[in-house]
UniProtKB/TrEMBL annotation, chain A:
It comes from Cynoglossus semilaevis (Tongue sole). It is a multi-pass membrane protein. This is ER lumen protein-retaining receptor. The lineage of its organism: Eukaryota, Metazoa, Chordata, Craniata, Vertebrata. One of its GO terms (biological process) is protein transport. Keywords: Cytoplasmic vesicle, Endoplasmic reticulum, ER-Golgi transport, Membrane, Protein transport, Receptor, Transmembrane, Transmembrane helix, Transport.
Amino acid sequence: MNVFRLTGDLSHLAAIIILLLKIWKSRSCAGISGKSQILFAIVFTTRYLDLLTSFISIYNTSMKVIYIGCAYATVYLIYMKFRATYDGNHDSFRVEFLVVPVGGLAVLVNHDFSFLEILWTFSIYLESVAILPQLFMISKTGEAETITTHYLFCLGLYRALYLLNWIWRFYFESFFDMIAIVAGVVQTVLYCDFFYLYITKVLKGKKLSLPA
Amino acid sequence: EGERGNKDEL
Protein backbone atom coordinates (compact mmCIF):
# COMPACT_ATOMS: atom_id res chain seq x y z
CA MET A 1 0.00 0.00 0.00
CA ASN A 2 1.28 3.50 -0.81
CA VAL A 3 -0.10 6.99 -0.38
CA PHE A 4 -1.31 7.20 -3.98
CA ARG A 5 -3.31 3.97 -3.78
CA LEU A 6 -4.75 4.90 -0.37
CA THR A 7 -5.84 8.38 -1.49
CA GLY A 8 -7.07 6.82 -4.71
CA ASP A 9 -9.28 4.37 -2.81
CA LEU A 10 -10.55 7.16 -0.53
CA SER A 11 -11.32 9.34 -3.55
CA HIS A 12 -13.23 6.44 -5.09
CA LEU A 13 -15.10 5.84 -1.85
CA ALA A 14 -15.90 9.57 -1.62
CA ALA A 15 -17.31 9.54 -5.16
CA ILE A 16 -19.53 6.56 -4.42
CA ILE A 17 -20.80 8.10 -1.16
CA ILE A 18 -21.33 11.56 -2.74
CA LEU A 19 -23.51 10.05 -5.46
CA LEU A 20 -25.51 7.89 -3.07
CA LEU A 21 -26.11 10.85 -0.72
CA LYS A 22 -27.02 13.17 -3.60
CA ILE A 23 -29.71 10.80 -4.81
CA TRP A 24 -30.92 9.92 -1.32
CA LYS A 25 -31.03 13.53 0.07
CA SER A 26 -32.48 15.16 -3.04
CA ARG A 27 -34.72 12.12 -3.63
CA SER A 28 -33.86 12.55 -7.28
CA CYS A 29 -31.49 10.99 -9.80
CA ALA A 30 -31.87 13.81 -12.33
CA GLY A 31 -28.79 14.10 -14.49
CA ILE A 32 -27.44 10.72 -13.38
CA SER A 33 -26.85 7.99 -15.95
CA GLY A 34 -28.41 4.79 -14.64
CA LYS A 35 -26.56 2.91 -17.38
CA SER A 36 -23.17 3.96 -16.02
CA GLN A 37 -24.24 2.89 -12.54
CA ILE A 38 -25.28 -0.52 -13.84
CA LEU A 39 -21.90 -0.85 -15.56
CA PHE A 40 -20.14 0.04 -12.30
CA ALA A 41 -22.19 -2.58 -10.45
CA ILE A 42 -21.08 -5.12 -13.08
CA VAL A 43 -17.46 -3.94 -12.75
CA PHE A 44 -17.46 -4.49 -8.97
CA THR A 45 -19.31 -7.80 -9.18
CA THR A 46 -16.95 -9.30 -11.76
CA ARG A 47 -13.85 -7.89 -10.07
CA TYR A 48 -14.63 -8.79 -6.47
CA LEU A 49 -15.77 -12.39 -6.85
CA ASP A 50 -12.48 -13.24 -5.13
CA LEU A 51 -14.29 -12.15 -1.95
CA LEU A 52 -15.60 -15.69 -2.01
CA THR A 53 -12.26 -17.37 -2.64
CA SER A 54 -9.49 -15.44 -0.87
CA PHE A 55 -9.01 -13.10 2.06
CA ILE A 56 -6.39 -10.37 1.65
CA SER A 57 -7.05 -7.93 4.52
CA ILE A 58 -9.83 -6.37 6.55
CA TYR A 59 -9.36 -3.17 4.54
CA ASN A 60 -9.55 -5.02 1.22
CA THR A 61 -12.63 -7.02 2.15
CA SER A 62 -14.52 -4.14 3.75
CA MET A 63 -13.85 -1.76 0.86
CA LYS A 64 -15.05 -4.38 -1.67
CA VAL A 65 -18.23 -5.00 0.33
CA ILE A 66 -18.87 -1.26 0.62
CA TYR A 67 -18.28 -0.68 -3.10
CA ILE A 68 -20.58 -3.51 -4.15
CA GLY A 69 -23.25 -2.54 -1.60
CA CYS A 70 -23.26 1.13 -2.60
CA ALA A 71 -23.25 0.31 -6.31
CA TYR A 72 -26.35 -1.87 -6.04
CA ALA A 73 -28.02 0.58 -3.65
CA THR A 74 -27.45 3.35 -6.21
CA VAL A 75 -28.88 1.24 -9.04
CA TYR A 76 -31.86 0.40 -6.81
CA LEU A 77 -32.50 4.09 -6.04
CA ILE A 78 -32.29 5.04 -9.71
CA TYR A 79 -34.41 2.28 -11.23
CA MET A 80 -36.80 1.51 -8.39
CA LYS A 81 -37.23 4.02 -5.60
CA PHE A 82 -36.75 7.26 -7.53
CA ARG A 83 -37.40 5.94 -11.01
CA ALA A 84 -39.90 8.77 -11.62
CA THR A 85 -36.95 11.18 -11.60
CA TYR A 86 -34.79 9.04 -13.91
CA ASP A 87 -34.14 10.89 -17.17
CA GLY A 88 -34.22 7.91 -19.53
CA ASN A 89 -34.52 10.05 -22.64
CA HIS A 90 -31.08 11.56 -22.16
CA ASP A 91 -29.53 8.33 -20.83
CA SER A 92 -29.48 6.82 -24.30
CA PHE A 93 -25.91 5.54 -24.73
CA ARG A 94 -25.86 2.08 -26.40
CA VAL A 95 -23.98 0.18 -23.66
CA GLU A 96 -23.99 -3.01 -25.74
CA PHE A 97 -21.38 -1.25 -27.90
CA LEU A 98 -19.20 -1.21 -24.77
CA VAL A 99 -19.94 -4.54 -23.12
CA VAL A 100 -19.57 -6.76 -26.20
CA PRO A 101 -16.16 -5.47 -27.44
CA VAL A 102 -14.86 -5.34 -23.85
CA GLY A 103 -16.02 -8.92 -23.30
CA GLY A 104 -14.29 -10.06 -26.48
CA LEU A 105 -11.08 -8.22 -25.62
CA ALA A 106 -11.04 -9.73 -22.11
CA VAL A 107 -11.13 -13.22 -23.61
CA LEU A 108 -8.36 -12.39 -26.11
CA VAL A 109 -6.02 -10.24 -24.00
CA ASN A 110 -5.52 -11.39 -20.42
CA HIS A 111 -2.82 -12.62 -18.04
CA ASP A 112 -4.28 -16.08 -17.51
CA PHE A 113 -7.08 -17.89 -19.29
CA SER A 114 -8.95 -18.77 -16.10
CA PHE A 115 -12.50 -17.90 -15.13
CA LEU A 116 -11.71 -15.42 -12.35
CA GLU A 117 -8.83 -13.85 -14.27
CA ILE A 118 -10.93 -13.29 -17.41
CA LEU A 119 -13.68 -11.75 -15.26
CA TRP A 120 -11.09 -9.52 -13.57
CA THR A 121 -9.75 -8.45 -16.98
CA PHE A 122 -13.31 -7.84 -18.22
CA SER A 123 -13.96 -5.62 -15.16
CA ILE A 124 -10.75 -3.65 -15.75
CA TYR A 125 -11.59 -3.01 -19.41
CA LEU A 126 -15.25 -2.26 -18.61
CA GLU A 127 -14.39 0.19 -15.85
CA SER A 128 -12.24 2.21 -18.25
CA VAL A 129 -15.29 3.00 -20.41
CA ALA A 130 -18.12 2.71 -17.84
CA ILE A 131 -18.34 6.49 -17.38
CA LEU A 132 -19.10 7.09 -21.09
CA PRO A 133 -22.90 6.91 -20.73
CA GLN A 134 -22.69 9.51 -17.94
CA LEU A 135 -20.43 11.86 -19.92
CA PHE A 136 -22.64 11.31 -22.99
CA MET A 137 -25.73 12.21 -20.95
CA ILE A 138 -24.11 15.44 -19.72
CA SER A 139 -23.19 16.35 -23.30
CA LYS A 140 -26.83 15.78 -24.31
CA THR A 141 -28.38 17.76 -21.46
CA GLY A 142 -25.60 20.38 -21.81
CA GLU A 143 -25.20 20.78 -18.05
CA ALA A 144 -24.63 18.96 -14.74
CA GLU A 145 -25.57 19.67 -11.14
CA THR A 146 -22.58 20.87 -9.12
CA ILE A 147 -22.78 17.89 -6.76
CA THR A 148 -22.63 15.60 -9.80
CA THR A 149 -19.45 17.34 -10.98
CA HIS A 150 -17.86 16.71 -7.56
CA TYR A 151 -18.83 13.06 -7.89
CA LEU A 152 -17.24 12.88 -11.35
CA PHE A 153 -14.11 14.70 -10.20
CA CYS A 154 -13.50 12.24 -7.34
CA LEU A 155 -14.26 9.32 -9.62
CA GLY A 156 -11.84 10.53 -12.29
CA LEU A 157 -9.18 11.44 -9.75
CA TYR A 158 -9.17 7.94 -8.20
CA ARG A 159 -7.81 6.20 -11.30
CA ALA A 160 -5.35 9.06 -11.94
CA LEU A 161 -4.02 8.42 -8.42
CA TYR A 162 -3.84 4.71 -9.24
CA LEU A 163 -1.61 5.61 -12.21
CA LEU A 164 0.73 7.34 -9.77
CA ASN A 165 0.50 4.21 -7.57
CA TRP A 166 1.65 2.08 -10.54
CA ILE A 167 4.52 4.46 -11.26
CA TRP A 168 5.48 4.19 -7.56
CA ARG A 169 5.25 0.38 -7.65
CA PHE A 170 7.26 0.20 -10.88
CA TYR A 171 10.00 2.37 -9.39
CA PHE A 172 10.14 0.88 -5.88
CA GLU A 173 8.84 -2.65 -6.41
CA SER A 174 9.71 -3.05 -10.12
CA PHE A 175 6.13 -4.28 -10.55
CA PHE A 176 3.76 -3.28 -13.32
CA ASP A 177 0.58 -4.69 -14.85
CA MET A 178 0.22 -3.57 -18.46
CA ILE A 179 -3.49 -4.39 -18.65
CA ALA A 180 -4.41 -2.32 -15.58
CA ILE A 181 -2.10 0.54 -16.63
CA VAL A 182 -3.35 0.83 -20.22
CA ALA A 183 -6.98 0.63 -19.10
CA GLY A 184 -6.26 3.15 -16.34
CA VAL A 185 -4.72 5.59 -18.82
CA VAL A 186 -7.73 5.27 -21.16
CA GLN A 187 -10.10 5.74 -18.21
CA THR A 188 -8.31 8.86 -16.98
CA VAL A 189 -7.95 10.37 -20.46
CA LEU A 190 -11.73 10.13 -20.93
CA TYR A 191 -12.12 12.57 -18.01
CA CYS A 192 -9.67 15.15 -19.38
CA ASP A 193 -12.18 17.51 -20.95
CA PHE A 194 -14.38 17.18 -17.85
CA PHE A 195 -11.37 17.95 -15.60
CA TYR A 196 -10.73 21.07 -17.71
CA LEU A 197 -14.33 22.24 -17.36
CA TYR A 198 -14.38 21.36 -13.64
CA ILE A 199 -11.22 23.32 -12.86
CA THR A 200 -12.01 26.31 -15.08
CA LYS A 201 -15.72 26.55 -14.19
CA VAL A 202 -16.93 24.65 -11.14
CA LEU A 203 -13.94 25.59 -8.98
CA LYS A 204 -14.65 29.22 -9.88
CA GLY A 205 -18.18 28.88 -8.60
CA LYS A 206 -19.81 28.69 -12.00
CA LYS A 207 -22.24 26.01 -13.10
CA LEU A 208 -20.93 23.35 -15.43
CA SER A 209 -22.67 23.97 -18.75
CA LEU A 210 -21.42 22.71 -22.07
CA PRO A 211 -21.69 24.87 -25.18
CA ALA A 212 -24.98 23.44 -26.46
CA GLU B 1 -1.31 -18.18 -7.60
CA GLY B 2 -0.10 -14.65 -7.08
CA GLU B 3 1.39 -14.34 -10.54
CA ARG B 4 -0.53 -11.09 -10.96
CA GLY B 5 1.01 -8.89 -8.27
CA ASN B 6 -1.89 -6.50 -7.95
CA LYS B 7 -4.49 -8.85 -6.50
CA ASP B 8 -4.41 -6.66 -3.39
CA GLU B 9 -5.54 -3.63 -5.37
CA LEU B 10 -9.20 -2.65 -5.47
